[in-house]
Amino acid sequence: MNISRFFGATNREALRQVRLALGPDALIISNRRVNGGVEILATDQTALPDNVVQQIAAQEAEAAAKQAPVTMRTAFRRPDPASGPVSYPGMPGTPPTSASGSDPRRAGALSGHMSSAEGGSRPTGAMPSAGGLPPSGLRQPPATGLRPAPAALAAAMGGPAESSGDVLGAIGALQGVLESRIDELLWGSQLRRAPQAISLFQTLLGFGFSTALLRAMLKRLPENMGAKAAFQWARNELVRHLPVLETEDELWQPGAVVALVGPTGVGKTTTVAKLAARCVKRLGAENVVLLTTDTYRIGAHEQLRIYGQMMRVPVHVVQDAAELRRILGGVSAHQTVLIDNVGISQRDRHVAEQATMLGQAGRDIQRLLVLNASSHGDTLDEVARSYTNDGGSRLRGCIITKVDEATRLGAALDTAIRYQLPVCYISDGQKVPQNLSYLSASDLVDRAMVKPQSQALYAPSEADFAALMSMAKPAEETPQNIEKKRRQLLPNLLTVAGSAGSGVELADIEGACAQIDDDLLTSETYELWRRYFKGDITDGIQALGLHLLRAAQNEFVGQQGQYMLALHDQIALRESDNRSAGRLRATVLCSQSGTPWASPYQQLTLADGWRASDGSSALQAPGNIEALLDQISWVAQSLAEVPVLHVFDQSTQALWHAVSASGAAWLSPCPATTKVYEQGCATTVGALSKAVDYHPVGALNELLDLAEIQSIDRGRLVVWAGVQAVELVSRQAGHLPVLLVAARVVDRDSGTVLRTVHGLAHATTINASPERLAMALLVATEQKAAFRLAARWWPMLAPRQWADASQKRALTAIQVGLTTWHALAGVETVGLRKALLGLAGSPRPTQVAAVSAMMKLFTLKEMTV
After folding, report:
1. CB 80 within 8 A of CB 400
2. CB 325 within 8 A of CB 318
3. pLDDT over 90 for what percent of the chain?
4. What's the rounded Cα separation, in Å, for the pair 598 and 138?
5. Helix, strand, or coil (residue 197)
């Protein structure tokens, strides 16, 4: 083979010389920059000897004869997961079927991008897919025929193997550099087209996900999406591709043998005990057998034996493969066997020996890899790679442990996606059997995407991304695209809005649609509304509520507020024919300034019974005190680390004492006739409020996120706040010290007192100022309109035939009612308000007109996306 050297001032000039000298079929070996220009080494493939050409042709013919015919089925066949992390060339619309019973939609399409996104750093053992695609995820020439083996080429040319190997090695290295460079160009292009990918990349990286996964995923991020919509899109992508165990019955078939494997100290023994307790409850103690191969760690088998005695389950200690075969041979075919294996470091050669021993047991053993959620992502990747390629049977899935000790869950889920290991359970504590949970993909992703309370030390900050963000320039729409969008929007506007919305401008509609994507409440509500009307809400009511809860928690952490407001209220529901439908109680989470975020919890009372969004149900609805305590308890358990001020409008002595006994901070609006005691003397709230020292609340725009109070612009108003320490006295419960809070809304021009609101508070745990308590009273009073709008939305939502359809209908109603009120009353929703008023055809729309306008706006957005 003759190698020629070409030099040019630029790449184009040097390549032109190669083409002129060697023709278009020249083989580029290397190129590099030198002083004065570019140097290229190239050769002519036709310069190969005839015997080499004949040998290559013979190899091509032989490979073609052995290759199966290519069909649509074989082109998308999934590679064997046992060979390593799966790889695919792209994100197909219909990913391959996932292994181990996971959802086919969650197949490893994302994992196929990871290798290429890493720029050549591929997990060991990654095999090409059935379609002949390399692990890098980029198309390459077929491995057979186009390139002769180095030894064969050298033998045919009469030269040493090393020289040909060096040439082909250089070609392979050059190809890897090109792949990495192409990947970088694609990633940079995506950042320029979709600048929101930068902030989303930073956020998800802070959750613990790898750069490889994020680059593979964010390359597909649609353009022109707002920050909230982009975050929701990323969440849905992770849910779609995260493999999980579909049902627990899938794992615990009669006669199942399950073995836990993994490194030392990840909690295998405790997890086996939790699984055993779960099996005893499902199958009975007589149908469960425990085995341990851990004879190395001191007291390991004794620990499992104690668990077995507590559950009355036999425990056997296994020394070698022969003893394992013997014990399993004596176990009945219908009994379930759990095997606790000795922990082995992923770098230890005994990993393969352990896999061989389990493979020689004489029964089909399902191996579950135990991943420590508190480990570093690179460590988890190394563990998964080692146990995936240990030569044993394919891993059935994984169990994620020590979730309670981990600051981030993203790395463990990233590993599950990368190696397509269905997540069977997570362990979040040492209590047996309580701290073992079976979660859906949406629950797992929501738990992983909760922002930490404190600043992360090992995650990049905004300053670290400053250089990267400076590279991203927002994509500019061409006048042709803008005009095309307007032509698409105009007919829909005229059709849907009708004569009432004839005065609305197209720019108002476009701005409102963009604001829907940027606001947490409106973006979540729009997505829920769209899925409800399309009939494709697949998540259960508990998963939907938890998702909204996590979203509100993330918003609270991002705003760094002092506490969160939880407003509890209720409303009667009626159908379209005005007959009574039932009653809805809901909890609304807000910022301390009154910005609504979500309603994650509801209680729905219908003619056929009472249901709560946490899964509780009863034939008869509980009393007011019990129902409210359930709401407060759910929030307290779900937001254990977040200070919460509970606001509710039910003024009874028994209720106030009961809520105080629960330890919750609360504020309750009450009538002026409410009886209280001041310095041992009985009086009323109304009488005492006249003698309270009031002071004006300064900087109303910093304390209250409402554009109007009592339909009057807040710029025309002054709020005065006053507090007084009093007591509630009950014969049964005794004395309860509380704080009387009074707020007066005064017209700035005329001095007229427009409204006086009273309330009692017991909020020592959150240390809220009198001004903040007064603002919370006003928010609670104004937000009653949101519940009235929710009642208007209820008959507009067609009943569905889902198992929990009525609860999803209630959730959608309260979310859309809350969004409608937020759009009309919020400070940051000027664009939404302008569009709604235009569609309603009135500056002061009625509730019916406001609901109709919001329906039109959502419909317009759906039609023009």
Report:
1. no
2. no
3. 22
4. 43
5. helix
The first and second tokens of residue 661, run together, are 């006994």
* Residue 695 near residue 722, CB atoms below 8 Å: yes
Distance CA 407, CA 447 (A): 11
CA separation for the pair 122, 204 (Å, rounded): 22
Tell me if the bond preceding 243 is cis, omega within 30° of 0. no
- Chain position carrying tokens 């990918």: 197
Residue 722 main-chain phi, psi, to 5 deg: -145, 145
- Considering only 171-185, 564-578, 671-685, 687-701, which range has the smallest mean pLDDT? 171-185
Query: How far apart (Å, rounded) are the C-alpha atoms in residues 117 and 88?
Result: 12
Q: What is the DSSP annotation of 588-613?
A: EEE-TT--EEEEEEEEEEETTEEEET
Neighbours of 27 (CB within 10 A): 17
Query: What value does the mean pLDDT take over residues 248-256?
Result: 85
Q: Which value, to the nearest 10 degrees, does the dihedral of the CA atoms of residues 483, 489, 491, 496 take?
A: -160
Count of helices and strands (H, E) across the chain: 30, 26
Please provide residue 9's backbone torsions phi and psi, each rounded to the nearest 5 degrees: -70, -30
Write the pLDDT tens digit of every residue in 635-678: 999 998 889 999 998 778 888 998 998 889 999 999 989 999 98
User: How is 202-237 classified by DSSP, letter by letter?
Assistant: HHHHHTT--HHHHHHHHTTPPSS--HHHHHHHHHHH
**Amino acid identity, position 576:** S
In SS3 terms, 336-363 reads as EEEEECCCCCCCCCHHHHHHHHHHCCCC
Give Cα separations from 282 to 269, 286, 287 (angstroms): 20, 11, 10
Q: What is the pLDDT of residues 444-489, one digit of tens each?
A: 998 888 876 666 666 665 555 554 444 444 445 555 555 555 555 5
In three state form, how does the secondary structure of 36-60 look? CEEEEEEEEHHHCCHHHHHHHHHHH
Find all residues with CB under 8 Å of 799, minimum gap 6, and list them. Answer: 805, 806, 809
The dihedral built from the CA positions of residue 822, 825, 830 and 835, taken in this order, carries a sign that is positive
Question: DSSP for 472-484?
Answer: --PPPPPHHHHHH
State how far the Cα of 393 lies from the Cα of 356, in Å rounded to an integer: 9
Residue 635 · residue 545 · CB < 8 Å: no
Instruction: Name 708's bridge partners.
Output: 713
Q: Which residues of 659-698 are buried (b: 16+ CB within 10 A; e: fewer)?
A: bbeeebbbbbbbeeebebeeeeeebebeebbeebebeebe
d(CA 217, CA 195): 15
DSSP for 795-860 reads GGS----STTHHHHHHHHHHHHHHHHHHHHHBSS-HHHHHHHHHHHTSSS--HHHHHHHHHHHHHH
**Close Cβ partners of 445 (under 8 Å, ≥ 6 residues apart):** 235, 238, 239, 242, 413
| 11 Cβ contact partners less than 8 Å away, ≥ 6 residues apart | 31, 38
From CA 56, how far away is CA 819, in angstroms rounded?
Answer: 68
In three-state form (DSSP H/G/I as H, E/B as E, the rest C), the secondary structure along 440-455 is CHHHHHHHHCCCCCCC
CA distance from start to end of the chain: 58
Contact 616, 630 (CB under 8 A): yes
- pLDDT greater than 80 at residue 845: yes
- The structure's pTM equals 0.63
Report residue 632 as tokens: 């407060």
